[in-house]
Amino acid sequence: MLKLLKEFVEVKQSLFRGVLIGVLFPLLVSSCATSDSVSESLDSGNKTYAFLLGNFDDKGVRRLTLDLESNELRDDGLVANVRSPGYMSLSANQNHLYLVSVDEHKRSSLAHFSWSNNKAGFDLVDKKDIKGISACHIALSSDQKQLAVSNYRSGDLELFSMSSSGSEINESAYFNNSKNLGGVSRPSHIHYANWSQDSSSLLVADLATDELLVFDAAKLSDKALTRKTDKLKPRQRLSLPKGSGPRHLAFHPVLDYVYVLNELSNSITLVVPDENAVYSLADSYRLLVDQVSSSADKKRDLSSAIRISSDGRFLYAAVRGEDSLKVFNIANDGRLKFVQSISTFGEHPRDFNFSSDQNYLLVANTFSDSISVFYRDQGTGKLNYLFSQSGLIKPSNILAFDKYK
Questions:
Q1: Does residue 194 fall inside a structural domain?
Q2: Residue 212 · residue 203 · CB < 8 Å
Q3: In which domain, by residue range, is 157 found?
């Protein structure tokens, strides 16, 4: 009997060891593979990357250097002198920087800076007051002749055109959504505007009215607009589910898919145009299983930023409150498949962006005054946390910048 019992115990131990190996070995291999991927990236690729950082403070636009050899993110100092720079946009050659900012009297303005090799920084070229209140986003058209400014509190969209020399900015059109709703006035919070992939349409997200407004871009050109006589009118008003709160859009780099990040419902809506450029809702995806929904709670879950990798294979979204990043794979038909959820290792991630080669992703954590650095596996889309850099006051917007290293 003792002999049988001993054999039984030995068999159980053997089986247990087998289960452990079967469960743990793949995890170890995966962990080693991720570590090896990072090491290979360091060995074969860039070891330093440059970024521009905007903030909700008087620190101006800062240039950051990500140094992977020393594992640090250096603040290289001021490159554009402006108070409280919010969202920014760079020209294709990175010689021109456009941004919206707010002064000490809460007045918004649009500024245009030009790169100076001599001073290794940007010089102010032109500055224009913005009619609306709380300018929160800026976008540059693909032909680099127009700028779209979104004003959150007043629900305005303002278009600006560049002179032929590119040195002067002039307002070319204005649209207020709260005053263009069939004679019925209601709150409007325009949070984002940008041109479609083929530049045929200007898409505008209104967080308060739960709408996606679509304008005919051909009617917004310099030649088509006459400031005194023309009024902007959307070609289409696409309604999203009530309470969605559309905040930002992400455009697929190759296909016609548009992804709407909904701040209040913490979801992503897939929007697709037909052959006549009429957009419709195709699908929706939740970012959170459980969420804090009380508006009185400082830690309320609110989605903040969305970006797509340059190869069009992966979508990333940030959620404040839960302070997390969500990763999705993009199928050929535009549908999303969940890949990963990972902490931002900082509080209140307002923005994030890729390095110039897409190997790294940096997150601007506003409340913790920090930037978190992740390695991005371009094969799987997954993120691997590397480190965080504190002491960067109220970071709000981040862009890859390789004009100067």
A1: yes
A2: yes
A3: 52-400
